[in-house]
Amino acid sequence: MTRAADATRRSPRRVFRDRAEAGRVLANLLGAYRDRHDVIVLGLARGGIPVAWEVAAALHAPLDAFVVRKLGAPGHEEFAVGALASGGRVVVNDDVVRGLRITPQELRAVAEREGRELIRREAAYRDGRPPVDVAGKTVILVDDGLATGASMFAAVQALQEAEPAHIVIAVPAAPESTCREFAGQVDDVVCASMPTPFLAVGESFWDFRQVTDEEVRRLLATPTTEAPRRAA
């Protein structure tokens, strides 16, 4: 199932002030999951964490980070050819790899580099805490938006191996085609806006500054299951 906020479906640009506001909009669309003991919110680090904190706080659900690293094409790192997720799951777009003539050795080198960064981030964000147990739970996967969906696809595949009861994808902005593609892979997809044409995730935000490791640590350390509290 795919849901969208009709008021923002065709809005051209700048729907949200920042990631926190986007999270509050998403939380309103996820009201059916509020105060349920089986719900866990996972934010894709780093950009998805400020969005996910607002969602988790509104739903009174626990929050954790799910680290996904984009696998960039050698020499053109901004162009994703795949993604690496927590648990070591690698997703690769074979057509793109063949089209760019990326060798197995080049791809392995990229995956190893991003794998080291993934391990570093997981250790930095959790301060030794183990990941939350999602087996048998309803997991809401939150990011600050979807473009190609490579990172979210890797996250979903990695998460499925942990055997949650249900997987829900929730994002502020994404192309309609990407949301519909995920609708066939998970139990619920909530997209707050589907701009047409879709150019980039950042185009939906007035403030889309980079999220820092320190901000991620602070948000993860701020309770979401108690009485509603605002993050600074």
How many DSSP H or I helices? 7
The sequence of SSEs as H and E is EHEHEEEHHEHEHEH
State the secondary-structure class: alpha/beta
Q: Major β-sheet, in short?
A: 8 strands, mixed
| Alpha carbon gyration radius | 17 Å
Task: Provide the helix percentage.
Answer: 25-40%
Number of strands: 8
Q: What proportion strand?
A: 15-25%
From the structure provided, what is the oligomeric state, counting identical versus distinct chains?
A: single chain
End-to-end separation in angstroms reads 34 Å
Mass-distribution shape: globular
In round numbers, the mean pLDDT is 88
Short summary:
This protein is an alpha/beta fold. Helix content is 34%, strand content 23%.
